[in-house]
Design brief:
738 residues, alpha+beta, Alpha-Beta Plaits, Rossmann fold, 24 strands, 49% helix, 20% strand
């Protein structure tokens, strides 16, 4: 979403600055709090916050504070309110234009009534010039025009100028007055056909979204009366006890009340080193119990309200309408008076009411508005079929013009699971011997690093040797005995606690997490684990460059060296390391302040602020968190990075078709107006020309419904599984990695 709390300068004098902040109007109750925060800026003498006008007036000491610094400090302090404003706006109904799109069934019914009126009118003709409104065609046309008349009157009341519906109603009445009830019915029929195509697209999009979100509920183990029974997640409520065993995913948020386990929280923090959980520890949905059994008292459980929120985000917010849609509406409405002006001019010159009527029959508004709405709805539908929930046309338009893409590292660019990338051994020892000892100490451990060590050894043809019981020291490492000697694998802290040292100097590598191997009191080797990039990341980045993205950066909370290595492997232009969530958001703000249109790609809680502030926030992967889903503008259910350039291609194609439709509508209807004023073509022919052009551009927009999925985003097979995983996670209030 674009940054709704980013200020813009309204006026600036030395020592006085007025700033406009779009989202301020949603923060009436926090006016005093905001003023106090801004007053703390060094050099500010006074602050006046006015939510009604969305403005802030500063008086400051120009000797110690300049405008640029004041704007930066203001944006930094206001950024924390952006998510609150966004959520408030998500809950508002779309009251932007007051025009309600009819459903497919209603429009189909109107067409049936229209046809019936035309057929009956043919057999019961009333041709009296004094009673033109009493013919069957006229009465049918007037009845069908009632909703349009209501909208026309509402437009006059609210905007004090005629809208497209007013023009349509006027042309219908004029047609009836001239004794051409059949023309009136034809105008309505062709208009309804065009709107039917638009409504069909919108309803099909909604249906696709609901189908995508329709998945089976997850089953969990629930403790009841001293027994553990397997129940549907729907049957779990706040306060219930859920038992989770080794290898199972936690499906609720809550606190551990009994038991102990090692829990993989990479789905939350991005840290692939599991955490020890015991009584009193907090756990979250989306985490996985790697070893142990824990009982959790439920604090939060997912239900259909999460799914409803996702659907609502896609369907209902004025903010989601693309700027070009708003422009199309305004442009078409501004052209309505032109038709009345042409009507007056033509009638004044020719004194021919039929020729003048053609100036009312032909207009630009219907084709522009309907084709634009259809194009965005069709593109959203195509996105759903490819595993992308696009929450409105606004984000397609923003995506088409973005010049900067930021990627989170863990789980977005990388796999989110460690692999051993290097092994160093002490002098005089063989790599195979050291690796065999390490594998023996890790053989029965469920820790991800242990799995990585075992996989690394097997790839090199090494097997564990006979050993004693493997003991896991939580948050430290593992140990076992071999031929009376103790073998340990773990952190330097674990080594130090047991007096193990490296006898000779060595150069420590910085390309991974160090896991030391010790035999009794001597460290004999170091295994380095690294979270490797996903297979298609480099291809995706190259494809984005091909699609016109100029700057691609990597953001991570990892060390500088880790960030540098991943950035070099995947080919980003730059990287930023050791970032907190607020640092990622600040990076987005700085880029926007320099005039960049920024796309942020992430999948975790720690990405949520940056996703919220970016012009387009993209949540990538089936394990995305509920907050990432809520704050992002596009939710991609597949873990394939190639969907990002696919989204870019689709957005650019959508905008190309929208602009193409604009040109076609203006060209065809301009020709129609010229012919209507200068030739003897009938009113009926003019109506056919105009409405046929509308149907043509709407049909042109419908091409986006059939956008080639494989060409745009790869095979569709993985999407369905990915989308179901996404929604299962959403329903249970799941969280994703940072």
């Amino acid at each position: 979403m674009s940054n709704i709390m980013q200020g813009s300068i309204v006026s600036s004098l030395r020592g006085r600055l007025r700033v406009e902040v779009p989202g301020l109007s949603q923060l009436f109750e926090r006016k005093k709090e905001i003023a106090e925060k801004l007053s703390c800026i060094r050099g500010v003498r006074s602050v006046q916050v006015t939510p009604v006008t969305g403005s802030i007036l500063f008086h400051y000491d120009a000797a110690c504070l300049d405008v640029e610094t004041l704007m930066f400090e203001t944006d930094s302090r206001l950024s924390e309110y952006a998510l609150d404003v966004h959520r408030a706006q998500m809950n508002r109904c779309d009251e932007d234009d007051g025009e309600e799109t009819m459903t497919v069934s209603k429009l189909a019914g109107r067409l049936v009534i229209n046809a019936a009126g035309a057929v009956i009118g043919r057999f019961l003709p009333i041709t009296s010039a004094r009673l033109p409104f009493l013919s069957v065609e006229a009465l049918t046309a007037l009845g069908l025009s009632a909703p349009l008349a209501k909208s026309a009157l509402k437009g006059l009341e609210t905007d004090l100028r005629p809208n497209a519906d007013f023009l349509t109603v006027t042309s219908i009445i004029a047609s009836i007055l001239l004794g051409s009830g059949r023309s009136a019915l034809l105008i309505l029929a062709l208009s309804d056909i065009a709107e039917l195509m638009t409504s069909y697209t919108i309803e099909r999009t909604r249906s696709s979204i609901k189908d995508m979100l329709s998945v089976d509920e997850k089953m969990v183990w629930k403790s009841e009366d001293g027994h553990v029974v397997r129940v549907n997640l729907d049957e779990v409520g706040t306060g219930d006890i859920v038992v989770v065993h080794t290898g199972e995913k936690i499906a609720v948020d809550g606190a551990v009340i009994s038991g102990q386990g090692i829990v993989d929280e990479s789905a939350i923090t991005g840290e692939f080193i599991p955490a020890e959980k015991h009584e009193g520890s907090e756990v979250f949905a989306g985490s996985v119990v790697k070893s142990g059994v824990i009982s959790i008292q439920t604090a939060k459980v997912g239900d259909q309200t999460v799914v409803s929120r996702i659907i609502g985000m896609v369907e209902s917010s004025a903010l989601k309408r693309a700027p070009i849609q708003r422009y199309a509406d305004r442009f078409s409405n501004y052209l309505v008076p032109l038709n009345f002006l042409l009507f007056a001019v033509v009638y004044g010159v020719t004194k021919d009411p039929r020729r003048a009527l053609k100036m009312l029959v032909i207009d630009y508004s219907c084709g522009i508005k309907l084709s634009t709405a259809t194009a965005f709805s069709a593109a959203i539908n195509a996105g759903v079929r490819q595993g992308m929930l696009i929450k409105g046309g606004a984000y397609l338009e923003q995506m088409s013009g973005a010049n900067t893409v930021l990627f989170d590292k863990t789980g977005t660019v990388t796999e989110g699971r460690p692999e051993i990338v290097r092994l160093d051994v002490a002098e005089g020892l063989s790599r195979e011997d050291v690796l065999s000892l390490a594998m023996s100490a890790e053989e029965t451990s469920a820790h991800p690093i242990a799995r990585a060590v075992l996989d690394y050894g097997r790839r090199h043809g090494v097997e564990p040797v006979a050993h004693g019981e493997v003991v896991t020291e939580v948050s430290r490492g593992t140990r076992t005995t071999i031929d009376g000697k103790t073998v340990r694998v773990g952190s330097m802290r674990y080594m130090s606690e047991n007096g193990a040292v490296w006898q000779k100097p060595y150069e420590q590598a910085e390309q991974g997490i160090a896991n030391y191997v010790a035999l009794d009191s001597e460290i004999i080797g170091v295994l380095y684990a690294m979270d490797k990039p996903k297979e298609n990341v480099r291809r995706a980045i190259n494809a984005l460059r091909y699609e016109g993205v100029g700057d691609i950066e990597l953001l991570t909370g990892d060390s500088d060296r880790q960030a540098q290595l991943i950035a070099e492997l995947v080919g980003t232009d730059s990287y930023s390391a050791q970032l907190l969530p607020e640092d990622k958001a600040e990076t987005v703000l700085k880029l926007q302040n320099h005039g960049n249109s920024v796309v942020m790609v992430g999948d975790g809680i720690n990405d949520a602020p940056a996703l919220a502030f970016a012009d387009v926030g993209i949540s990538l992967g089936s394990r995305s968190t509920d907050i990432a889903i809520e704050t992002s503008d596009v939710v991609i259910s597949r873990d394939d990075p190639m969907t990002i350039p696919a989204l870019r291609r689709m957005s650019r194609e959508t905008m190309r078709i929208v602009h193409q439709n604009f040109a076609m509508v203006v060209a065809i209807n301009t020709v129609g107006l010229i012919l209507g004023a200068s030739s003897n073509i009938s009113v009926l022919a003019s109506a056919v020309l105009h409405n046929s052009s509308t149907i043509l551009v709407v049909a042109n927009s419908l091409r986006l419904l059939f956008m080639n999925g494989e060409k745009a985003a790869g095979s569709d097979n993985g999407y369905r599984q990915g989308s179901k995983a996404l929604v299962q996670n959403a329903k249970r209030g799941g969280r994703g990695r940072a």
